[in-house]
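Hey L., structure's done. Input below.
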Amino acid sequence: MKNIIPIWILIACSLSLKTFAQGDLLIAPIRVIFEGNKQIEELSLVNIGKDTATFSITFVRRQMQEDGTFLMDQKFDSTALEASPYLRIFPRQVTLAPREPQLIMLQCRKKKGMAPGEYRSHLNFRSEKNYAGLGMNKIQKDTPHLNIEIIPIYGMSIPVIIREGEMNFHSELTDLRLEPERDQTTTLYMTLNRKGNCSAYGNIIVDYMPLKGKPIQVGKLKNIAVYTDIARRKISVRLTLVPGIIFKTGNLRVRYTSPDSSKYSIYSEVLAPIFGKPTGLVILDGTKNLTNIKTEKGQ
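Output:
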């Protein structure tokens, strides 16, 4: 099933924050949530490479680690709620010419008696190029050496989430510290803690609060998730160098907010006075939660 997508949709996809491109494939949206009575989601694919390419589409498991990476193709906790048994995808393989678009249909079929909670699987897009390497057929004669060609296999995945029942989460920012880097920049490290029965998803925004004057945004990370696999995630934000600012006095305000695509809301916020020398380890002491959000609807 090939679809002709108007050029204005392609332009919107290229500019949208909810697109994901890796290798030769552009995908929008980059995150799918089925909740309430929602049953259908359309995904837009565009081949942004120079050659015709074939992509296979399958459901896989991904388990988040505290550093934000994922474990793949391993045995996970059997109690995890998988979304794939309730999902259908069509088609499962597409062949696209350069700049050719394709619509993919994703359908959710909930079953009666589903346990309340957040179900998650990842939709994986794998390039099916001819990956034949040199192999044994390319062994040079009269030499003991074997030529090996390593070719990367491009693939990407997006989360697909089904929510059943009442969802809530509580987030908290802790363990803040500033460290100077070798390239003369400064990085803010922190722990993003999550409680509740659904994942957290939003932006990290860092503002420098001088003793006098207006706040200045010095750092931002978009689309930071903490899935139900883990209760905390380690975060690092490289701060923007602003002329005249030395992180020695004043405060840093750190907020975990709703993503850009939804109505602005603050999930958690801390204000940290800065103590220390700008050339060494800067300790953020006296951290105080400014908001105490006990329950937030999942994003």
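The helical segments are 7-15. The chain is about 5% helix and 50% strand.

-- N.
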